[in-house]
Amino acid sequence: MDDATTEGTTGTTLRRPIPERWVQYYLGNGPSLAWLLVVNAAAFLVGVSFYVHSEPSLRDVSSLLYPLFGDSPTALALGTLSLATLLPHLGNRVRDAPTNYPLTVIHTLAFVWLVKYGIWTAVALNLRPDLYFGFTPDLLWDYWGIMLTHLFFLVEALLIPYYGKTTRSALALALALAFINDVYDYGFGFYPPLKYEAGVLLTAITIALSVLSVALAAWLFDRQESNTMRTDAVSAAERQ
Pfam families annotated for this entry (predicted)? Predict the structure, then answer.
């Protein structure tokens, strides 16, 4: 029996720090879930706009590589897709949301990207506080606005294990894609635009965050058993 089962609907644990009744209220009701999806979509568009006007910009890369270049917008897109899978399940318990292997991949990737780039942004800005920290009109957004909005990535990521599950293969895929993203960013110089050149320290921190975010997913998520997924597939085939 896992922690999510034993905690009931009001208690919290280290693996489930948000009371489940709150998760149920915000993700199990149409209006609140819709608002969260709208906020995500708006934040995604703001992120895309940033990468359009940055140097290098989206214009400098192939459209097929946009998900690797636009790290934070990719995290938001994956998070939005993960949350959107709850729409057919509205009115039911969030933690009983249906699952299958493609969904385990979506939820795992969303969690890993949200955690990785939520933390990465705070770290990157604070490696050179002389360039970012301040209270001028520009720095209020360049430092405080960007850092705080990205820290909300972590809150959203923590919601996903309440309804999503993972598998070893989904975790392995997430780690492989995270490393590919790191090679693209730092091997070819397409890391998120900064006011300074990323050096060895930031590169090492980013790689460590790839490992940390996947390890955290492995700990926080319940596992989707392969025999359960086969049973779900057989049931779906029988209904057809």
Answer: DUF1405 (PF07187)
